[in-house]
Amino acid sequence: MNTRVKNVNTEILSDNWYVLRKVSFEWQKKNGEWQKQSREAYDRGNGAVILLYNKETRKVILTRQFRMPTYLNGNKTGMLIEACAGLLDKDDAENCIRRETEEETGYKINDVKKVYEAYMSPGSVTEILYFFVAEYTREQKITDGGGVADEEDIEVLELDFAQTLEMINNGEIKDGKTIMLLQYAQINQLISY
């Protein structure tokens, strides 16, 4: 427990889609003085994300779908290119990402490797994201993917790895989790290019 935090009071502002809380508390500054603060925290649960890659073809599997928050913040089409991801629900991270991979991309993967965990927007969102990578082959493609029909409308993209790095540079890929995984693949030389 952090002894520099006390008198925490939580109020639910919204419980419509996920949970938005207003948290009032006292924070002890470095000089010992106690300061009253108030923050809003959005709790949407934790998630998992994966980069599927093929060493032989030098390709990766990404997805494209409409994301309203990006549309509201200047993305003219609202379409975003992303690595496959999903919320944990009641799963552990590894089972979640296997399920999401099959639903979204149509690939049934065998071996996944967890590479790290990260808070994506710790100033306002409680979510921690579990990052994975996995090799794929064409033989592992069992459906067209596209997500759960009544919930999602996802396009599956198979792209040259070198092209995705250029897409980061020219702004076609703007999703943080996707950029992190593509750079992980580059730094760790998962795919030659």
Structure write-up:
- The protein has 193 residues and is α+β, with helices and mostly antiparallel strands.
- It has two domains: 5-43, no CATH class; 47-187, Nucleoside Triphosphate Pyrophosphohydrolase (Alpha-Beta Complex).
- Helix content is 20%, strand content 39%.
- The chain is elongated, with a radius of gyration of 19 Å.
- The model has no long low-confidence stretch (mean pLDDT 95).
Distance between the termini: 47 Å
Give me the CATH fold name of the largest domain: Nucleoside Triphosphate Pyrophosphohydrolase
Number of contiguous helices: 4
**Category by helix and strand content:** alpha+beta
What overall geometry do the principal axes of the alpha carbons give?
Answer: elongated
Alpha-carbon Rg, integer: 19 Å
Strand % is: 35-45%
List the helices and strands and how they pair.
Blueprint: E1 5-14, E2 19-28, E3 34-43, E4 47-54, E5 59-66, H1 68-72, E6 79-82, E7 84-87, H2 93-105, E8 113-119, E9 128-135, E10 155-160, H3 161-169, H4 176-187
Parallel strand pairs: 4-9
Antiparallel strand pairs: 1-2, 2-3, 4-5, 4-7, 5-6, 5-10, 8-9
Salient structural properties:
2 domains; alpha+beta; elongated; three-stranded antiparallel β-sheet; Nucleoside Triphosphate Pyrophosphohydrolase; seven-stranded mixed β-sheet; single chain; 20% helix; 193 residues
In short:
The chain has 193 residues and is an alpha+beta fold. Helices cover 20% and strands 39% of the residues. Strand 8 (113-119) and strand 9 (128-135) form a beta hairpin.
